[in-house]
Amino acid sequence: MSVSEVDLRPVSVPGPVPGEEPRTMAVLRRERDTLLARIEAGDPNGVERQHELGKRTARERLGLLLDEGSFVELGVFRRRGEAGPDTEGRRPHTDGVVTGTGTVEGRRVFVYAQDFTILGGSLGAEHASKIHRVMDLALDAGAPLIGLNDSGGARIQEGVAALDGYGGIFRRQVAASGVIPQISVVLGPCAGGAAYSPALADFTFMVRGTARMYLTGPDVIAAVSGEQVGHDELGGADVHGGRTGVAAVVHDDEDACLEDVRHLLSLLPDNNLSVPPAEPPTGAREDVRPRLADIVPVEPNKPYDMRDVVAEVVDDGDFFEVHEGWAPNVLCALARVDGAVVGVVGNQPMVLAGVLDSDAAQKAARFVRFCDAFNIALVTLVDVPGFLPGSAQEHAGVIRHGAKLLYAYCEATVPRVQVIVRKAYGGAYIVMDSRSIGTDLSLAWPGNEIAVMGAEGAVNVVHRRELRAAADPDARRKELVADYRERLMHPYRAPEEGFVDQVIDPVDTRAAVADGLALLRDKRREQPRRKHGNLPL
């Protein structure tokens, strides 16, 4: 049809229906506001049921998480399509997830909050599409992404489309890994394939009593294996916070949980091209801490709490510990030293004498890699007697898991300061950021012992024939142990050979760490070009 043939007559617009209010902009605006208010208010019965379960609604949660008045919602009018099974009368707006952007302490974040009051928060195609969009925006904007999970899982009525939606979420999480911080908060059920989303996040928070996460629920387990197990026993917050390591932080209530998410965000950068927000210097480089001379016993086998050492080294004694309940024989925390954010890794003599095992190695390795990805300097506090011996650990793959920690430190290019607080034996000394694997600055206290193993163990191995033949084996053993300590384990042996840069007074540890971080502030080290390494997963 040519342009001349196009019908250019004005379109006839129907007039107002008798008895109806004329269609004016004021009417359209009022209708829009009424619809929006109804959507935001939600179903009263659903809201009441949510509160009866001890849970807040999606919008209430976002109100706690974000700065007041900062939330901008996206996709509020999205609904399921008309076609398909089970759509009649079940096409609520938002499709069970609230998505958008807001600020936390003035910094931009992107969020989604699943709404259990709508279709049980189940994930269908539109629900997933909204999450995909906010994830794409977060990555494009270089801003943290926070997901609040409270969902019955994949929407069965939508079949493979729901599964495809989960796949799209996982693919985006992997693409964003190491580029923007990703935080997952589990505030209700998170079952089936949905559980992989928190597992892929950098940090996962859970709330006791309401949060539960598992691939296969109790009913299916009972039907398949006959095993009877409750929801909390199978996948509650304490299970994932203390046994599986999926949850980095566990809280008793939602308010405290979301407040802690805000705290964590204050210690993280927006993305991998920025640095964490710094606070004004605190005078750490001149700060003497007399208490550090008393916290750690000189005897290598006496316990103490490494948290007390950390509190004396970091600003205001304040640190954010992650995975506190899982593998507690190693401590991982974010803190500040002289205003700058650091990641702290330390052996914990209060638990298993501070030995490394499979879980501890995995915990520390993931934390080290996170810090390296987001330009957070590392401070490693060492007091380790070795790796946990025994067939159970060997068969659990302690070699492979220990290699993860070794790999993580070797790969890290951020500033790294090691402090040997007391003892450092065997392969555990190597993997705890020793000079041999690339730490930038190695400091040690005057009571340090660095050796292949403790003196008693070394003598029993090296001199076993002599001891067997001795007239008084116990007396001879004491002589040999004393000699071994004097020759090979004295505090200045490693510094003499260049494996330790400085032996410091314990009271000067905070100042020495701050000095070291200051001199390393402009460190630049490029890795060889490659697609990626082959981490021993």
TrEMBL record:
<feature type="domain" description="CoA carboxyltransferase N-terminal">
    <location>
        <begin position="23"/>
        <end position="280"/>
    </location>
</feature>
<dbReference type="Pfam" id="PF01039">
    <property type="entry name" value="Carboxyl_trans"/>
</dbReference>
<feature type="region of interest" description="Disordered">
    <location>
        <begin position="1"/>
        <end position="21"/>
    </location>
</feature>
<dbReference type="InterPro" id="IPR011763">
    <property type="entry name" value="COA_CT_C"/>
</dbReference>
<feature type="domain" description="CoA carboxyltransferase C-terminal">
    <location>
        <begin position="280"/>
        <end position="531"/>
    </location>
</feature>
<feature type="compositionally biased region" description="Basic and acidic residues">
    <location>
        <begin position="81"/>
        <end position="94"/>
    </location>
</feature>
<dbReference type="InterPro" id="IPR029045">
    <property type="entry name" value="ClpP/crotonase-like_dom_sf"/>
</dbReference>
<dbReference type="InterPro" id="IPR011762">
    <property type="entry name" value="COA_CT_N"/>
</dbReference>
<dbReference type="InterPro" id="IPR034733">
    <property type="entry name" value="AcCoA_carboxyl_beta"/>
</dbReference>
<dbReference type="InterPro" id="IPR051047">
    <property type="entry name" value="AccD/PCCB"/>
</dbReference>
<protein>
    <submittedName>
        <fullName>Acyl-CoA carboxylase subunit beta</fullName>
    </submittedName>
</protein>
<feature type="region of interest" description="Disordered">
    <location>
        <begin position="81"/>
        <end position="100"/>
    </location>
</feature>
